[in-house]
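Progress note, project year one: complex with XIL.
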Amino acid sequence: MSMTVRGLTRAATAGLVAAAALTAAAHSAEAADTLGSAAAGQGRYFGTAVAANHLGEADYTATLDREFSSVTPENEMKWDATEPSRGTFTFGSADRIVDHAQSQGMDVRGHTLVWHSQLPSWVGSLGASDLRIAMNAHINGLMGHYKGEIHSWDVVNEAFQDGGSGARRSSPFQDKLGNGFIEEAFRTARAADPAAKLCYNDYNTDGVNAKSNAVYDMVEDFKSRGVPIDCVGFQSHFNSNSPVPSDYRQNLQRFADLGVDVQITELDIEGSGSAQAADYTKVVEACLAVSRCTGMTVWGVTDKYSWRSGGTPLLFDGNYQEKPAHDAVLSALGGSGDPGDPGDPGDPGDGTLSCTATYTRTADWSSGYNGQVTITAGDEPISSWTTTVTLPAQQSVSSLWNGTPTRSGNVMTVRPSWNGTLAAGASTSFGFTVAKNGSDAAPAVGTCTAS
Ligand code: XIL
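Model obtained:
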């Protein structure tokens, strides 16, 4: 059987599948006792920014692996890290993070493709037509390398100015290509990895204000003209000068009402104790109140490595102890108790993770068909699933979406791409196109295994 599958563009795929299986047991013991599993119970991911150079620190990695279901490379996917000179892509540090995340069954957010900051000087020295080519080549280079492995990409970051004007920020892209650079970046990104959610990401847009109004107008315009955009990221870096806005939920909701998902992408809140905990609660409650708020990411694991470490803005202190803010977030997410104790009061069900897989043919033509497999979680939230699709001997799969396949003969084992996390009773599906090669028989779908 011949098969080409989209989304397996990095060589590491074979290794990561084996590693993911190893960690399935660890995740299944967590029930709703960690941030990631509690958020999964609400149908959301709970992520953190990760720095590759800390992955060798045992406490850092243990906390990361136990608590979080999504990671964002803090600096490793930025332009200066990935294309320091034109056409030379360096993915070592970013690959380490992606490999680690996948080995733990965690999703990955891509951050960020087009941004004025952490931009190598060669980009700024290009003329307009060359800059445009370089921008598209950069998007294609990164999204191609990680095709099928990133649940959401921050395609453009921080393109609007602070202050009251709602104007675009000066940058090589804005100054030389004009307003249209954002649209062009999104169109290029859609073609580069059709499975990734494409986000616009910014700060000081968390409440209703001139800057968020300007972003809102852009998203509304994109939706009306069919420019591909799926999500808006709200960085949510808060402190006493920039507190959690009282209209945070309302602002998230108005964006969601435009037909995009919203995500809290870089959350940190300076402070300590019960005041900090109360602010974190407000943010989590706002996200949970907006059905299209699909997940939250805090901007680091531990206060000691925060970019604002002086403000102790995160959920774990410098010794990886849970702060009151951690407990407040866990409780706002509906979680409870200590890690590793699935019997805690408040946990739904008895801790046994399960799922079912059902097959339907969704399109049919003389030489081929589209199949779809729907995965439904049992009475516990799950963070990953695996099933098999066995094809009649003559048939071959030409593409597969919303899943990560590995093939052995005519058996495809399919695991999640971005869609491992399911609330109790919730469903997702993956699809595939099959060439009949003379056989119209249906494939057989195997047992679903949850973790
Ligand atoms: C920050 C990182 O946390 C720092 O390590 C780095 O020195 C500068 O960038 N908005 C963003 C993030 O989109 O990429 C920034 O991350 C924080 C502000």
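The chain is about 30% helix and 25% strand.
The longest helix spans residues 128-145.
No further modelling is planned for this target in the current period.
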